[in-house]
Design a protein that fits this description.
It is built from twelve helices and no strands. It has about 290 residues and is an all-alpha fold. The chain has one domain (about 1-275). The longest helix is centred in the C-terminal third of the chain and has 32 residues, at about 230-260.
């Protein structure tokens, strides 16, 4: 009962925060021109809002009440927060942060020299990869897993760490803003492939282990028609399938960008900035003008 009250309270403020973030984003999108090609394209705005919706589904929907009862539900939360919502949100980010309204007070310090240096360090591919992989492994250790279940505070920290490291992981792949690439573009294929390895090891262990790794689910999962071991196998199989499919789609897009004959050599493969006109300017005509 206490857990249910915590979930209800957390759902209220999380829902409010996500609605506020969505309204601020949409307000900025409208002020930047809405469907104007010089602003954020409509599908990118929809991607951002869908990402927020997935975060709500993981943290404030009825699914959140099941994470203490089923490992499969717990795994769905992790996948939503780390694998599905982050790329959608990064895809929807504007190339240049808005400099008006509530974003102005935040944007100014973020554009300072020291903050930009910190940002470049945090978004280095090696840092992003290690942060995501270590977060995944650490929070699935039995001791850390149980800590997140026993403490609502640590559970919130767990969910926040999945979301933050998920955003960091996808940043070098999508490159939503113009930046100097720290690694050669083809290395993103290796980046994505290596990222599947921790997930494969963990999910394979959950699927093929002949004992229940997290005993807390020994009694609760039976009420859903699954034994604790079957619940564990289902969670592992879900993680294995979802992560492999998402990374395969991302790798396919990266490979297609590398092989595209129309790709500019100066433009990152998956840099989703504003659409640019395909008309080239003649330097001689410019001089004549």
């Amino acid at each position: 009962m206490l857990h249910t009250h915590h979930i209800a309270f957390d759902s209220l403020w999380v829902s409010g925060a996500l609605v506020f973030a969505g309204l601020v984003y949409l307000r900025g999108w409208v002020r930047m021109g809405g469907f104007n090609l010089e602003s954020i394209a409509g599908w990118r705005a929809a991607s951002f809002v869908l990402g927020l919706l997935l975060i709500w589904a993981a943290t404030a929907s009825p699914l959140a009440a099941l994470d203490h009862a089923m490992l499969t539900a717990h795994m769905v939360q992790h996948l939503l927060l780390m694998t599905l919502a982050p790329p959608l949100i990064v895809l929807g980010m504007p190339v240049k942060p808005p400099v008006y309204g509530p974003s102005q007070a935040i944007g100014r310090p973020l554009r300072s020299g020291p903050m930009q240096k910190i940002g470049r360090a945090l978004t280095h591919p090696a840092v992003c990869w290690f942060a995501a992989a270590s977060t995944l492994v650490v929070w699935h250790l039995p001791s850390m897993f149980m800590l997140g279940l026993r403490s609502q505070t640590w559970h919130g920290i767990e969910q926040a760490s999945f979301l933050v490291t998920g955003l960091l992981f996808w940043w070098p792949v999508i490159q939503p803003r113009p930046s100097v690439s720290k690694w050669p573009e083809p290395s993103m294929l290796l980046y994505l492939f290596l990222a599947t390895l921790p997930c494969d090891i963990l999910s394979g262990f959950l699927v093929f282990c002949d004992r229940v790794v997290y005993p807390v689910f020994l009694s609760s999962s039976q009420s859903f028609g699954l034994s604790a071991l079957e619940d564990q196998q289902c969670a592992g199989a879900l993680m294995w399938t979802c992560v492999t499919l998402v990374y395969l789609i991302a790798g396919t897009i990266v490979a297609a960008g590398l092989l595209s004959p129309l790709r500019s050599e100066e433009r990152p493969i998956l840099q989703f900035g504003p659409e640019r006109s395909a008309v080239r300017t003649d330097p001689q005509r410019m001089e004549a003008v």
